[in-house]
């Protein structure tokens, strides 16, 4: 376990390197999930920094994820995008998953937008839906805040009141309505993967009150909330996990559905960013 000082030293090395490559102060961080990489198409790019060049940065291993920070302006707002994210199932620690979120904060972000691919468990959902994340359940076997706490970042025992900013939730609903886009809303439960769930597990998770399940987002959201970022989150429902109506589900289905829905989510996120 690193000390606060060690973590700061690593963070400073990463931030110093990024600042040596690019002179840009982002206000909004965006984490792009599976199959959502082309969300960046609407961004007037200022520059990119590859993860594998940044000191102490984890490096993405999943094929469907590029690995770089992309800086630019989206509808007039300075943003930094993580193209490629880090999952617990890849073998990263929660500290490693938190590192890019701390880095974006040190670069200046006040808002974090997270997106992911998720399995739908609410029977009113269907594959291809976009779900606004209202809240989450941490079903990971850990928490990125375990270990020494830096009181300059946030509280030792942060409350989890309004992790997903209510004003932004309303904004997303307003923008969706303007765009004629019907979106779902619900609770995201995050767990390790890499297996999808058994029918019995989907039934249990639904019983706990979750509407969608995935393998990311929760550690990043906890980190961002701890450092007082305002968070807006979306899931693309890529497959349905209905315990009484199970079908085989392939990675191609998941990525295919994520990519098919991505243009709508891209417009929705751009519309929200414009009004933030
Ligand atoms: N379960 C967990 N993670 C997922 C799923 C799922 O059904 N679909 C996409 N990511």
Written description of the protein model:
- By secondary structure, the chain is of the alpha/beta class.
- The chain has six helices and nine strands.
- The chain has a single domain, classed as Rossmann fold, CATH 3.40.50.
- Strands 5-8-7-6-9 form a five-stranded mixed β-barrel, surrounded by four helices.
- α2 (94-107) packs across α5 and α3 (166-178) packs across α6 (251-275).
- The relative contact order is 0.20.
- The mean pLDDT is 93.
- The chain binds hypoxanthine (HPA).
- The site of hypoxanthine has 13 residues, from β5, β8 and β9.
Question: Summary?
Answer:
The protein is α/β, with parallel strands linked by helices. It has one domain: Nucleoside phosphorylase domain (Rossmann fold).
Secondary structure: elements and pairs:
Blueprint: H1 4-21, E1 28-32, E2 44-50, E3 68-74, E4 77-83, H2 94-107, E5 111-120, E6 130-138, H3 166-178, E7 184-190, H4 199-207, E8 212-214, H5 218-226, E9 230-240, H6 251-275
Parallel strand pairs: 1-4, 1-5, 5-9, 6-7, 7-8
Antiparallel strand pairs: 2-3, 3-4, 5-8, 6-9
Bound molecules: hypoxanthine (HPA).
Hypoxanthine (HPA) is lined by residues 117-119, 193, 196-197, 213-215, 238-239, 241, 254.
């Amino acid at each position: 376990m690193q000390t606060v000082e060690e973590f700061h030293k690593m963070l400073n090395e990463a931030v110093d390197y990024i600042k040596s490559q690019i002179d840009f102060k982002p206000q909004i961080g965006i984490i792009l999930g599976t199959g959502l990489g082309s969300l960046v198409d609407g961004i007037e790019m200022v520059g990119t920094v590859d993860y594998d060049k940044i000191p102490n940065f984890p490096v993405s291993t999943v094929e469907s994820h590029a690995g770089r920070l992309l800086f630019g302006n989206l509808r007039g707002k300075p943003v930094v995008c993580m193209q490629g994210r880090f999952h617990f199932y890849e073998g990263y620690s929660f500290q490693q998953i938190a590192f890019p979120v701390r880095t974006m904060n040190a670069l200046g972000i006040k808002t974090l937008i997270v997106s992911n691919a998720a399995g739908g468990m609410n029977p009113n959902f269907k594959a291809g839906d976009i779900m606004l994340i209202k809240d989450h359940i941490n079903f990971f076997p850990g928490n990125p805040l375990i270990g020494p706490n830096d009181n300059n970042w946030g509280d030792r025992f942060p409350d989890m009141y309004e992790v997903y900013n209510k004003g932004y939730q309303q904004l997303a609903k307003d923008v969706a309505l303007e765009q004629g886009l019907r979106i779902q809303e619900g609770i995201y439960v995050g767990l390790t993967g890499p297996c999808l769930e058994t029918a019995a597990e989907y039934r249990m998770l639904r019983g706990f009150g979750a509407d969608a399940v995935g393998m990311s987002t929760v550690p990043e959201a906890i980190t961002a909330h701890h450092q007082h970022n305002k968070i807006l989150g979306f899931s693309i429902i890529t497959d349905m996990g209905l315990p009484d109506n199970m079908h085989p589900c392939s990675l191609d289905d998941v990525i295919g559905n994520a990519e098919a829905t991505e243009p709508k989510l891209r417009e929705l996120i751009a519309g929200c960013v414009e009004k933030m």
